[in-house]
Design brief:
The complex is a heterodimer of chains A (about 300) and B (about 210).
Chain A lengths: L7 H27 L3 H26 L1 H22 L7 H19 L3 H23 L5 H26 L8 H28 L14 H22 L4 H29 L14 H5 L2 H16 L1
Helix pairs in contact in A: 1-2, 2-3, 3-4, 3-6, 4-5, 4-6, 5-6, 6-7, 6-11, 7-8, 7-9, 7-11, 8-9, 9-11
Chain B lengths: L1 H17 L1 E4 L10 E5 L5 H8 L4 H5 E6 H4 L3 H10 L3 E3 L7 H13 L3 E4 L17 H8 L5 E7 L1 H4 L12 E5 L9 H17 L7
Parallel strand pairs in B: 1-7, 2-5, 2-6, 3-4, 3-5
Antiparallel strand pairs in B: 6-7
The chains are: A mainly alpha (about 300), B alpha/beta (about 210).
């Protein structure tokens, strides 16, 4: 059982999240009663989805470490499925996608058995080098490069990147209980808080756009506001969830905010290239899974390696 | 019972390994009689279309399917009749058009929601072939029944004709506005084709 790790510290964080959600729900309801609008309805939908996502995530994290792994494998699968449903592809290379999906269970088996070496090279070495074989044997070279490159980029983000969330759970030192689940919670809360803070600061103060051609909603004010908010939050949460010193928590706050932003606009650029708005409609108000985990595809691997280098 | 079996076996699989992205869901009829006309890329088309219906309306759904294929062995026959509740029809040419359509007309008279694929067989994946005029003769029997065009995209990638490898892909579903039968066969078929083409163009899909 993971329940043993449900320490007071973790409890404070969960209570904090619930408090934020309750406040957000009440504020929206009051504003909506005073002056209903489409934008508010959208915000309302988003907050409801946040509740659902929070509850599912909390259950997955707390219940049992194997359940957490299955949940995260499922998350990788759903994100990869959305990505594969969007990209243009040469029909003849269809089976390449089949092998790419198989990478998920294999990657998670390496995590389950705590094989760090294989976990870290399986996708960038074995999958990247072996997967073109399928397309080569089919023999159709039309758009060969495009097929292979887009599958590899998808596996890099959705399988390699997101599976780092799961590896945090089995980091050495997990015997102390808290560390794995605490790190995952720290990373996910900061990444998502950064998204929300960027959005709110951008709405309030945003003028000058950062990357207008890629994502017209991203402003400098939003970016800097997000960066500062996330860093403050990182310092507050660090003693509860991580072994970090003050300095390390400041750096990880800045790092997560910056890399989360890049992960976000990376998916935006991809969507703009394919001329689509949302990656699917599975999460009301948010769009697809991919729209929600876009920042995590960057922050999860980068933050884990940062932590691992300095602390484990 | 049928609803339970479907919700237990088929619906979770469709939602998890495929996933549906339905546009204009509100246009989907909640009760029969009604004819759903869809394009046909894969065996999974029918399962996905049926998953769109929930609750009471699900009980009225009856896909039309070729008896030579779907009743060919015991398990398939059990699944086709007990879970899918198909209306089996003969794919042979016949003079007796009224007799051929009789089971479908009966189902419509019972308030059924009938699913037909007027392309006949599963076409080349993700390409719309011209619709066969069978649907015209069916509708001539019951001209007042509304027809709802539905365009499906993605299943030709997931499980195209002739492939054994299934690949999870989200299915895009475009539901059109209902329309009615008209006497002029040419005009009716043109209207059907135009409506399906319009639905297809809503998607801006990249070449596959």
């Amino acid at each position: 059982m993971n329940l043993g790790i449900f320490s007071d510290d973790l409890m404070y964080v969960f209570v904090g999240i619930v408090a934020v959600l309750v406040i957000a729900t009440i504020v929206t309801a009051v504003l909506k009663r005073r002056k209903p609008s489409d934008a508010l309805h959208e915000v309302d939908l988003r907050i409801r989805s946040w509740w659902v996502m929070f509850i599912i995530f909390a259950i997955a994290i707390v219940l049992h470490s194997t359940i957490s792994l299955i949940f995260m494998a499922l998350l990788c699968f759903l994100a990869l499925k959305e990505y594969f449903s969007l990209i243009p592809f040469n029909r003849a290379h269809r089976l390449v996608l089949f092998w790419a999906y198989l990478a998920i269970p294999i990657q998670f088996l390496f995590i389950y058995f705590e094989q760090y070496g294989m976990f870290i090279i399986f996708i960038p070495v074995y999958m990247f080098l072996l997967i073109p074989i399928q397309a080569i044997f089919v023999g159709d070279t039309k758009n060969f490069l495009q097929s292979i490159a887009s599958v590899q980029w998808g596996m890099m983000l959705m399988v390699f990147g997101l599976s780092h969330l799961a590896f945090s759970l089995v980091l050495p030192g997990k015997e102390n209980g808290l560390i794995g689940a605490g790190l995952v919670l720290y990373l996910v809360v900061l990444t998502q808080a950064n998204d929300v803070a960027q959005f709110l600061w951008g709405k309030m103060l945003g003028k000058k756009k950062i990357v207008p051609k890629v994502s017209p909603n991203k402003t400098w004010a939003g970016f800097v506001g997000g960066l500062l908010t996330t860093t403050v939050l990182a310092v507050i949460l660090a003693p509860l969830l991580t072994p970090f010193s003050i300095l390390a928590s400041i750096i990880s706050g800045l790092y997560i905010a910056l890399m989360g932003f890049i992960g976000d606009v990376n998916i935006s650029a991809l969507k703009r290239d394919l001329a689509i708005k949302d990656t699917s409609s599975i999460i009301p108000g948010h769009g697809g899974i991919l729209d929600r985990v876009d920042s995590l595809t960057y922050t999860a691997p980068l933050f884990l390696h940062f932590t691992r280098f300095f602390y484990f | 019972m049928r609803r339970f079996l479907f919700s237990l076996i088929v619906r979770p699989l469709v939602l998890l390994v495929l996933g549906m992205n339905a546009r204009h869901y509100e246009r989907l009829p909640q009760e029969g009689p009604c004819v759903i006309v869809a394009n046909h890329n894969s065996h999974l088309d029918t399962l996905v279309l049926m998953s769109l219906f929930r609750g009471k309306s699900f009980d009225q759904v009856r896909p039309v399917a070729a008896s030579d294929y779907f009743l060919k062995n015991k398990f398939l026959a059990w699944f086709s009749t007990k879970v899918m509740n198909i209306i089996p029809i003969e794919r042979k040419m016949t003079r007796d058009i009224k007799g051929l359509f009789a089971p479908m007309v009966d189902a419509l008279d019972d308030g059924g929601i009938i699913i037909v694929f007027p392309e006949g067989s599963r076409g080349e994946a993700e390409k719309l072939s011209r619709y066969k005029s069978g649907v015209y003769y069916l509708m001539r029997e019951r001209p007042d029944v509304p027809i709802v065009p539905v365009f499906l995209h993605g299943l030709g990638k997931a499980l195209p004709k002739g492939s054994f490898f299934f690949i999870p892909i989200i299915v895009d579903i475009f539901i059109g506005n209902p329309f009615k039968f008209e006497e002029d066969k040419r005009a009716f078929m043109d209207a059907l084709n135009t409506r399906m083409d319009e639905l297809q163009q809503e998607g801006h899909f990249k070449e596959w």
